[in-house]
User: Fold this.
Amino acid sequence: MIKRFIFSEKQGQSIPEYALLIAAVALTAVAILSLLGVQVGDVFCRVAQGVGAESVCTDVLFYDNFSGGLGDWRSFFNRDGNWAINEDDNSALCHIGDDGDVLLANGTEGSDYSISSDANLASGNGYGLFFRTSESETGGIEGYTFQYDPGYGGGQFIMRKWVNGYELWPPFAAAAPPQGFDWHNTDRQVSVDVSGDIFTAFVDGAEVLVGSDSTYATGSVGIRTWNSSQVCFDNFTVETR
Assistant:
């Protein structure tokens, strides 16, 4: 009986000792990786992504539900009067003008990110999400847009490249919507994943278009409208990976 008691006590004492040993090894490994310039968080994210847990490594770079006005946005063409905050039910940003515009979100400079927004197109030829956007030396806008575009080719999802204020023709990616798709007066959730040279667009969670281009590696995000399109946006979100 005494011998069994002593043996059990030694086993119990070894558990915290093993824990301390494992912790020491882990701290040593972290220190070595840091000295080699390896970000431990990046390693964790790669492992998590490898087992399908991608969401644990996302950070919200920007979010706006437009309850506080347009202080976080800049009208590229100085057409602030084309926009209004609709507060009928929930606050939303609406394009109400006859001229198109580009709104750029402040503090969203980056390379790889995911953009999403709720949107409802009441009338007109569509709207777009800008990404990797910047201003050229001569003042023209540059970057890419994913466009929800009922006015193009009978209605398509397209991606365009902008060079010094001009959108290049034709789009570098285009796809028709599912049969019976309602472009107008329907709440949609649109998003674009920007990763390296590959851009993947989704509507209501379903993949609708993939494009590829290597011209611009970084830039801000924003919203585009054209002509007299009447459209409202809400819950605009940018997440980095």
About this structure: The mean pLDDT is 85. The helical segments are 2-35, 40-50.
